User: What shape does this take?
Amino acid sequence: MATLARTLRPAFRCLRSQARSYAEASGNEMKFTFAGANQVFDVPSFSGSFGILPKHVPTLAVLKPGVVTVYQDDGTTKKVFVSSGTVTINEDASVQILAEEAHPVENLDNSAARDILSKAQSQLNSASSEQDKAEAAIAIEVAEALVQASS
Assistant: This one.
C-alpha cells in the first residue's frame, strides 16, 4: 500500500496544482439543451436526482431511469421520463441533457408499463448467459422506473 502511494504521489501533486473553476455565465443565465432520440424539449431549468443552478461545478453525470422535472419560465413544470442518458455541465454554463429515450409522463400508459416489467422479469427468469441476465436486469430497472413514473 505504501509503495502504491509513493508511486501515485507525483500524479496527486499534479492534481492539486490544477484550479477548479465553476460554470460562469453572464449574469445568472444558463443555456440548457434537453434531447432524447425521439424529441427535443424546451428547458429553462431542470432537476432530477440533482438540480443545476448558475455557477455549478462542471460535471459529467449519468442519468438513471426516472423522471426529470423541467421548470418553465412561466412557473409551470413538466415531468419527463428518461430511460438513461448523460448530463454535461460545462464551464461556459451550458448544460446538455441527452437521454436515450425521453417521454412526457402524461403520455405514459401504466398498463403497458406493467406489461413491459412482466416481460422483463420473464426474460430474467429464462436467461442462461451472464449477458442475457445483465440485459434483463437493465430492462427490469427501466421498467420499474417506468411503472413508478406512470402511476
